[in-house]
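Extended Data, panel c. Modelled sequence:
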Amino acid sequence: TSALRNSMYLSRMLTEIIPIEDLFAVNTETRDFIQTRTIISSSSAIISTISSSTLIWMVLRSPQRLSTIHHRIIFGMAVGDIIFSLSAANYNAMIPSDVDYISWNAQGNQATCSMLGLLTVLGAPMSLFYSCSLNIYFLAMVKYNKTDRYIRTKMEPFLHG
């Protein structure tokens, strides 16, 4: 009988026009979970932005500034992390308001959504690639005993690209 009920429900759903809000209706437990997840991820993104800003400040205040390869890679990774964290630190406020039935605190429009997508698409790979570049830099320094001059002339252009 449950299969019959399911098929009747499916046929009713296919033959009637169901408002989109009913299709995406979420119960209070799901909405609370979405809200909690959003608050936690946005709060951690704010902490990440502050930490990366502090790292940039430390690199720029050091005597070597951006003259070392290590500092340039760390600087690029921190900038990428700030860009990505800014996309996550908005408590979903940049998500279009017409999808507020799916996302908690959606207050934006299509332009803010596009900006959010741009920040995410730029920041996430940038931070990831600079992290890989830092690993490659230390691999060349420690395992293969490459000099700073060799890394700066032969490898560094590829580490930033």
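The helical segments are 2-15, 20-23, 28-61, 69-88, 110-143, 148-160. This feature is highlighted in the accompanying rendering.
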